Amino acid sequence: MGLFFCYKYTMKEFFGKLRASIELTIIIVLVIWIVAIVEHLFHLDFFFLGIYPRESDGLIGILFSPFVHGNWEHLIANTLPLFILLVALFFFYGRKSGYILPLLWITSGITLWLVGRPAWHIGASSVIYALASFLVFGGIISRNIKLVIVAVVVAVLYCGLIYGMFPGEEGISWEGHLSGFLSGILWAFLLKNRLREIKKQAKKEQ
């Protein structure tokens, strides 16, 4: 695995890092599913943990809205892209993902709270859009061949997400999608110097 994306990974290191990325992602996704199961079993509705734009009661959703979904279809639709994008972030950005994910999560929520329609907004879609946007633009800005390849793959796989950022189907928070997308771009540019450190580190390890 010495040539893998220009990093001198041994097979053990590669699979160890991949396993850690998957395990951390499973924990996050599992929490989301547990919330949905608790709602179903006890006939609860956690909509109040969502974001209600420009209302103080809706501020709590900046942290908790991605854990709440409207129905099983909503949850299932979000699970796979969230899983793939989180694994990609954890694996390719390593320790930097420890602050990248919270920044994307909170910024997309704040933006939605500021610009969204007066309604409850729930679901992990804003985080999905933020992750996809960051992986694409952050990868390109980093000038790291490994991250650029990741950016191209994500852009190809999730180019259809762009249609979700415009008003359309009733009940879909296109503002959440747009907020996430803009948050990803914002942090890709604000963190460009730190992202380019990855390229420098890669050169040292070649």
Description:
The protein has 206 residues and is mainly alpha-helical. The chain has one domain (4-205): Rhomboid-like (Rhomboid-like fold), CATH 1.20.1540.10. The chain is 67% helix and 0% strand. Helix 4 crosses helix 5 and helix 4 (97-115) packs across helix 7 (174-190).
- The CATH superfamily is identified as Rhomboid-like
- Examine the secondary-structure arrangement and name the CATH architecture: Up-down Bundle
Class by SSE composition = mainly alpha
> What's the N-to-C terminus distance?
12 Å
Question: What does this entry show, briefly?
Answer:
With 206 residues, this protein is mainly alpha-helical.
Secondary-structure map:
Blueprint: H1 11-41, H2 61-64, H3 72-93, H4 97-115, H5 125-142, H6 145-157, H7 174-190, H8 192-205
Question: Which terms would index this structure?
Answer:
206 residues, mainly alpha, Rhomboid-like fold, 8 helices, disordered N terminus
